[in-house]
Amino acid sequence: MARLEWTDEISVGIAEFDIHHRRIVDLINRLGDSIDTGDALKVTEEALYELSNYCFYHFFAEEDAMEKYDYPGYIEHREEHLKFIETVFQLIFDFHEGKKSTSRELLAFLWTWLKNHILGTDKKYTAPLRAGGMS
Ligand SMILES: [Fe+2]
Ligand SMILES: [Fe+2]
Fold it and tell me: Distance between CA 115 and CA 125 in Å, rounded?
């Protein structure tokens, strides 16, 4: 599968959050590779475990910053984070039930998340948070 390279177009302009978002790019690549090599079960399990932590450290960090700088889109943004958490926990459930398509579903979900949330919803906070002093 084609690998996804990190570019400035993915950057949200806030170093801490870019470091977190690189984890998603890395997981997309690891999952894609693992589907090619037949190693998908092990990598999917690791990815789901990592994402269950990601929900907390990354979403809390973004939500804290949005609250601190009175970001007007906070509520809608948080709703999307909650939906992500729901989906990840559903995928963890499916995986433990032995659902064979979980790896591909997780990979598709992360691609959609990158395109719609990181490149869409997240990027909307760049200017207001940078104006507040974040960089
Ligand atoms: Fe984010
Ligand atoms: Fe976000």
Answer: 16
From the list 28, 11, 3, 125, the residue with the least C-alpha distance to 68 is 125
Distance CA(128)–CA(135), nearest Å, equals 11
Output the CA 92–ligand 1 centroid distance in Å.
20
Ligand closest to 76 (CA) is 2
Ligand with minimal distance to 77 CA: 2
Angle at 85 between CA 4 and CA 16, to 5 degrees: 55
Residue-wise pLDDT for 9-65, tens only, equals 999 999 999 999 999 999 999 999 999 999 999 999 999 999 999 988 999 999 999
CA distance 94 to 62: 28
End-to-end CA distance of the chain: 34
* CA 40 to chain CA centroid, nearest Å: 19
Q: What is the pLDDT of residues 72-115, one digit of tens each?
A: 999 999 999 999 999 999 999 999 999 999 999 999 999 999 99
Give the pLDDT band of residue 1 (cuts 50, 70, 90).
Answer: confident
